Amino acid sequence: MPGLDVATFGVSNVIEKESERILKYKDHIIEVQRVLNIKTKVLPVIIGATRTFSKSFRKYLRNIAGKHNIKELQRTDTLGTAHILRKVLV
Fold it and tell me: What's the pLDDT tens digit per position in 28-78?
């Protein structure tokens, strides 16, 4: 059951936020496994504000079907952040 939770953080927080996301969805994983009787796991794909990512980033990305270009993901993250800032600051 795929889900997406997007977040952008400062450089020093990437690993911390990765762990936080895994813990945040622990109850959801247990519930999905119990109700639907399927194996589920969290794949935290977190990109830092300065385009940094954790050492586990590539490992998690390999678990998502399809081809993924890291530079394109970083670009999308940066454009998304700029869009949010424009909406808030204008």
Answer: 889 989 999 988 888 877 776 666 777 788 888 888 888 888 788 778 877
Q: Are 72 and 35 in contact (CB under 8 A)?
A: no
19: Cβ–Cβ under 8 A, 6 or more apart, which residues?
A: none
Q: Say how far apart CA 78 and CA 63 lie, in whole Å.
A: 23
- The Cα angle at residue 67 between residues 1 and 45, in degrees rounded to 5: 55
Cα-based angle 55, 8, 61 (whole degrees, multiple of 5): 40
Interhelix angle 14-24/26-36, nearest 10 degrees: 40
Contact 25, 48 (CB under 8 A): no
Measure the CA–CA gap between 50 and 70, rounded to whole angstroms: 13
Instruction: Look up tokens 């890291």; give the residue.
Output: 70
